[in-house]
């Protein structure tokens, strides 16, 4: 069980599905980096000798610690896992500030979707404290006018007492087409949304609308970085992940087969494999 930065209960259900890991991108990045900057590669290897002792996870919009339940079960061996509270603040910088006040001095950091926006803000505020970075099904871009308009529509539904309608509207976009009939998966996502509640959901949506463009930040990230995305993610599609990976010199890009935006739940074993490699400096 993770230590308490976030008070939500842990998942009861998690899914064991087959996975396929492709490491070509990671190997290519290591080889090219060795050719252009051997000194920094040596520094990186020195840091990789010991795996990260603390991993901080940041859930996505209307998600709780259950989003990472499969990963927590496996990755908690040998390290402390904290799940950040992203429900009480009105902006991404405030969420990041709370995380930094409650986290240890140094930690590995992983965020999915909204969690990725917060992770990038942590890199903006205190990059020296982050040992490793994982950006899962997320984007470094600011909200588009069209996306913000859709968020305002969803906020209006929530504030009008029609919170339950939001999941039905979003469900087809959240998961891979092959998982749309998965009632167990849908139940987990609905439960997380209910646990988040209307007030926190509205705060999260407004924070996301106001997030900064983090693309200028990416070339300055010089820590091992995992960029992971579901191949069927229609919210933050693979081309958005590829853009981030190409701008971060030490990035490894992993595209998860048969997964959409909720990759940690749709293909948990596949994500665990990628995160173990990232954490252990493989």
Quick take:
The chain is an alpha/beta fold.
How would you describe the overall organization of this protein?
The chain is α/β, with parallel strands linked by helices and 282 residues long. It has a single domain, classed as Alpha/Beta hydrolase fold, catalytic domain (Rossmann fold), CATH 3.40.50. 47% of the residues lie in helices and 12% in strands. It contains eleven helices and six strands. Helix 3 crosses helix 11, helix 4 packs across helix 5 (114-125) and helix 6 (145-159) packs across helix 8 (183-209).
Which regions have little confidence, pLDDT < 50, spanning 5+ residues?
A: 1-51
Anisotropy-based shape: globular
CATH C-level name: Alpha Beta
Task: Briefly note the structural class of the backbone.
Answer: alpha/beta
Number of domains: 1
Which strand order does the major sheet show? Answer: 2-1-3-4-5-6
Count of extended strands: 6
Helical run tally: 11
CATH topology: Rossmann fold
Main sheet characteristics: 6 strands, parallel
